[in-house]
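Example 405.
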Amino acid sequence: MIRGKTILLGITGGIAAYKGAALCSKLVQAGAQVHVIMTESATKFITPLTLQTLSRNPVHIDTFDERDPSVVSHIHLADHADLIVVAPATAGSIAKLAGGFADDMLSTTLLAATCPVLIAPAMNVHMYEHPAVVRNMDLLASRGAMFVEPGTGQLACGYVAKGRLAEPEDIVLAVQAWFARGKTLSGKKVLVTAGGTIERLDPVRYLTNDSSGKMGFAIAEAALLMGADVTVVAGRTTERPPSGVRLIRAQSAQEMLNAVLPLYPEMDVVVKSAAVADYRPVQTYDQKIKKTGETLVLELERTTDILQTLGERKTHQLLVGFAAETQEVERYAMDKLKRKNCDLIVANDVGAEGAGFNVETNEVQIYGPQGLVEALPLMSKRETAGRIMDVVARRLGTGGGGSGS
Ligand code: CTP
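Predicted structure in complex with cytidine-5'-triphosphate:
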């Protein structure tokens, strides 16, 4: 997938710049033509010679260091890149890109480029969460930039928190995903629900669940990379939605149902990864409930099962449900698939280590009407999402590689 592609690797001046060497090496090993641009600050952390040796190409640092008179380097590099990867991307380089500055070789080339840009931020956690940085990343995402989220761990500044550059292997996976997800869902309309719902009790209290929206957003991103036209109906989430999707916010199960139903007829695929409340308070209060007795009994009533409603009204859509189980995963998943008239059910044992709510990884089994289609090993949610959407593409007959069972 990467073989023969031209990738421009931008390395900016953070301590994680040294990981740029491993990333460069892995991209070259995967068959890419890699051209490296370093900022001056990056050269304080790692030498250009390292990157030149690994990429087998000259490293560019100074816009005015024009070695080939037949071309203007920054335009030439920008025009010939299939993808630009900025890793690590410091807060400063993200700000420059968001603001459209062109005062060094990397920022000038980025401004001249029309190909997609993948950004892997790395910085101190407070910098990563600073409103200015968040705003710059949102702005870039709205312009189509893709992000590889930093990991959580020991930071060079001493904090144990989010901000560590994603591992080079994960950045390579994101690059592969970009090239590989070909266009097997091109022309298809995909609706994804993500996150947890909120069932209000009074103005300051509600019932919700631990869903982060990570899995749903990863599915939306995978579908987008595969060329689909993606709409996301999102409940409560802690994650940033992928750029390039149509995003509709819904709080309660009822609001999610109301958002999904009118869109349903035009959809080719619906993936219901949201964790929808099964019950809501019978009574909601306009004013904050004051404490009175020693106990308080809440009466709950069933919400409408959105997936089941979609199953009943299915005409041509491929309907994918999720089943979060803690025991007898296969039996419950197959029961849900039949009861809710789904075409596929993605099941996971939420009690298992590294699977389920609010973690970066998942381990799922995909079931069809005839039983198990694929059992995926523990892997990142992004990779899991790609594999789920590969099965969807095969079911639609657009993904090649047979239809599975
Ligand atoms: N779901 C839904 N609407 C609801 C509840 C669930 O659309 N009101 C969907 C979820 O989005 C998910 C699937 O149903 O795709 C599985 O949800 P789950 O709550 O596990 O299934 P239930 O059938 O409610 O089974 P149980 O609670 O007994 O496990």
